[in-house]
Amino acid sequence: MNMNPILAIDGYKVSHREQYPAGTTKVYSNFTPRSDRHFHSPVADGKLVFFGLQGFLQWFLVDLFNAQFFARPEAEVVDEYQAVMDSYIGKGAVSADHIRALHQLGYLPLHIKALDEGSKVAMKVPVLTITNTLPEFFWLVNYLETVLSAELWKSSTNATIAHHYRTICERWAEKTCSDISHLDFQCHDFSFRGMSGLQDTAQAGCGHLLSFKGTDNIPSMLYARDYYTQGQECFIAASIPATEHSVMCMGEKESEIETFRRLICDLYPNGFVSIVSDTWDYWRVITEYTRELKTQIMAREGRVVFRPDSGDPVEILCGTCADDDTRADRTPEEKGSVEVLWEIFGGTVNDKGFKVLDPHVGLIYGDSITLERAEEILRRLAAKGFASSNVVFGVGSFTYQYNTRDTFGFAMKATYGEVNGVGRMIFKEPKTDSGLKRSARGLLRVERDDNGDYQLFDEQTLEQEQQGELKTRFLDGKLHGVEHLETLRQRLAAQR
């Protein structure tokens, strides 16, 4: 994106500078998740995983501002701003003198403090604060509210959702698995095509990578590499060869089994390969083709992963009949995919007494998976005597696109300011609101309580505000406290 970042604002921000009281020299604001009432999870804990700030600070506040604002000629930048405002608000209605002053300064005079990324944060605890470092640029703080909110809410939301998937998978692995090496790859990111553009998929998709290492979202890998590895070697993510429906259709229905045979024997005689299997008759594939190709599948060094992609995922994987139904005459649909593959390929019973499919075969389901469905699938597999490691989830639109800023009620609000050198504790408390929009008051400090949880203290002195867990991340155009992806992963893992 090559736009001038000084124009990355809501229109009403243009006029706020002159609306503040005369003599305003400081604005102090915070960014806070206010409520999780719209977030639904079987393992809900009232907390958010904070993530995405470091990447945003680097690509937007540093790289984009340097390239598209400070590095451009002053006249060019100022004239562009003036021309946009003249056409948008009215000719001469908006001055560009403050934009000229900022360009001449050569950096963003801001101080942003934040909690550690990868931390879990309760509702109504601010994840960051922002204020100006030079009095004449007080207007810049909330000027950036819109872009900061737009760039941060989804990264944290996606990181939280992925964390809940990981928690669900770990809980069932603890109950049903002797080997937990599958966990890093049990949820695979399929969300790219449903995201709102390339920047969105790269940035928000990176949140998935705090909890998992399986993704088809290559832009998110690159985003993690560029903004969370500092050029160091790091295993970010991986995937395997996989088919799509166009490949299977091109092979034609009448010779579908030959397409399978070519994939398994010729193209990928070793290693992992995922084959979408519902192009025409999924149950024929899973019951007939598997038997005909069993010798070739078992002779491979690797795994053939069958991918159902339609229908009810719980029923497709676990069956339509009761979990304790063991009738010999059940149909494949009644048994479900895991049990069908067990009957054909067998496997082992682990130390905890649960069945594990032969490692030459596996299943991934990538359509309409949700947290609730993942929980139900793993619960039912356990009830049928199967380990949770027998399935992989492809998580996409039902996981990462059914969310908004209100999923965790994110908002940026000013709570303190200074006018003519005198501090003002400011807040909002609408009588017409349920309490959700009530803001904190004054300067803020966040500390950990005896349980290690973050706790907000408002109405703080200047000295108190400088203490606590909100640490400097951006100061006068430069990043501080930069952290590595693995550090964030380990921090989050320690909180599960």
From TrEMBL:
Domain Nicotinate/nicotinamide phosphoribosyltransferase: 185-472
Enzyme class, first EC level, given as a word: transferase
Database matches in InterPro entries: Aldolase_TIM, DUF5598, N/Namide_PRibTrfase, Nicotinamide_PRibTrfase, Nicotinate_pribotase-like_C
Protein's pathway: Cofactor biosynthesis; NAD(+) biosynthesis; nicotinamide D-ribonucleotide from 5-phospho-alpha-D-ribose 1-diphosphate and nicotinamide: step 1/1
Biological process, per Gene Ontology: NAD+ biosynthetic process
UniProt GO MF annotations: nicotinamide phosphoribosyltransferase activity
EC number: 2.4.2.12
Reaction(s) catalysed (UniProt annotation): beta-nicotinamide D-ribonucleotide + diphosphate = 5-phospho-alpha-D-ribose 1-diphosphate + nicotinamide + H(+)
Entry annotated with the keyword Transferase: yes
Keyword Glycosyltransferase among record annotations: yes
Range of residues in the leader sequence: none
Tree of life domain: Bacteria
Pfam families, per the entry: NAMPT_N, NAPRTase
Keywords for this protein: Glycosyltransferase, Pyridine nucleotide biosynthesis, Transferase
PANTHER family in the cross-refs: NICOTINAMIDE PHOSPHORIBOSYLTRANSFERASE
Protein name in UniProt: Nicotinamide phosphoribosyltransferase
